[in-house]
Give the backbone structure.
Amino acid sequence: MVYRIAVFEGDGIGPEIMAPTLEVLDTVLAKLGRDLLDYTMLPAGAAHYKNTGEALPTASIEAARASDAILLSAMGLPDIRKPDGTEITPQIELRFALNLYAGVRPIRVFPGQSIPLSDPRARDMDFVLVRESTEGLFAHMNEGVIHGQEAATETLRITRATSEKLFDFSFRLAERRAKAKGRRGRVTCVDKANVFRAFWFFRSIFEERARAFPELVTDTAYVDAMAMWMVQRPWEFDVMVTENMFGDILSDLAAGLVGSLGLAPSADIGDDAAVFQPCHGSAPDIAGHGVANPLAMILSAAMMLDWLGAEQQDDALIQGGAMIEDAVSVVLSDATHLTGDLGGQATTGDCAGAVIAALKSA
Ligand code: ATP
């Protein structure tokens, strides 16, 4: 079986980190002795918008929909904007087009990796933030209204249908993690149910669905308190599930806990499709210098193999994902091949090359 992978190279540092990531995937497949992936490069992004007036062509959406998984690098550039002044965001449009409601952001510390928190327990942090990715404050993201010079309004939308799927996804994820780690799983719903009715509704659906998973610990937290606890004691959390905007903010906080956005992978998963991309943006400030950290993109490709393997019941892919994680772990264990964001001096090519070398010698 050969799986069709739709690839969006993106803008800024996007192509610089995508090219070595495909080399990493090819190395893993060669190591496994399997010819498993067939890539199709698809146009989209800020540069494409500048040239054609279209950020995410319908043909690209349909080709992505028809693929088995989608690998997407960072997109958007601050100086290329729509007439209303907002940046183009095809990665967000794709989440809506393919109904990718569960944004999965795993955070953990690799052995030897240096992190900003000095408490030794912080090295044990290992949690997943699940960000709802199709509604919340982003549901009407192009429909905000500016009322003259006096005021502006935006709308937040929570639906029962999406919330139920989101919570069930989070509970199943916690079950899978609990099984793998041999301990009880925990899911925390992060909201602002004390102030907003929409979040009271969100929380009540969480509590309803939680009854079907009695083997899990389930609890709730307000987002402001959670922002503090994530800094004070992040090692206590397992799976956290939250609304789109809260998830957007908390996932950057979470990436900061492990030292850099350059190490934070993500997946946006729906019932029929999934996109894998780094949490970071296109980093125009460093684009073209060959110094971007490729590891978040490479770890996103590992998540893709793991997801695809589970979906297709193909253990070779799951094994391939684990091999990439191990190779990244080797590279992070000393400073020689780290890029500037992690305190090193390596180029993107040096860092990715070290991952490939670790894979070959494993
Ligand atoms: P977006 O809103 O599209 O997520 P952003 O405005 O949050 O983007 P990023 O493009 O993620 O911004 O960049 C934030 C900072 O992190 C920049 O200083 C950038 O250089 C740095 N950065 C982001 N990704 C990487 C990376 N892979 N390697 C090194 N530095 C990075």
About this structure: The chain has a mean pLDDT of 94.
